[in-house]
Write a structure and sequence with these properties.
Blueprint lengths: L4 E6 L7 E7 L2 E7 L5 E5 L13 E3 L2 E3 L6 E3 L15 E2 L1 E3 L5 E5 L7 E3 L2
Antiparallel strand pairs: 1-10, 2-3, 2-11, 3-4, 4-8, 5-6, 6-7, 9-10
């Protein structure tokens, strides 16, 4: 299987310390941008109660679920602290010249950037 990076938008489409969602055959994926312009992608579903992580607070390399304050590491998907759980993460990269965002998933999905 060859790797296929799929364009999903531009870095400027996501506010610093914010997120946007894409839809795919694998479900909703949240794409996060930190204050330092690092970009991460996880499934948009908290492992505790299914809260929308894209609506959470981004701080450093973490997002806090808006429903029950679970803190999730954006790079690994693991829940921090006394809580347990994990969300799926996806490789994402920024083209250094065009600032275009690209994501890598197992299947070749069609993506659409959801406006939020």
């Amino acid at each position: 299987m060859t790797e296929t990076w799929t364009p999903i938008g531009n870095l400027a489409d996501i506010p610093r310390r914010g997120a946007r969602c894409i839809t795919s055959p694998l479900g909703r994926i949240a794409v996060f941008r930190t204050m330092e312009d690092e970009v991460f992608a996880t499934e948009d579903r908290c492992p505790h109660k299914g809260g929308p992580l894209s609506q959470g607070i981004v701080h450093g390399g973490f997002v806090t679920c808006p429903l029950h304050a679970q803190v999730i590491a954006l790079d690994t998907g693991f829940v921090e602290g006394p809580d347990e759980g994990r969300v799926r993460t996806f490789p994402v990269r920024v083209d250094p010249v065009t600032k275009a965002l690209e994501i890598l998933v197992e299947r070749q999905p069609a993506f659409a950037l959801a406006a939020e």
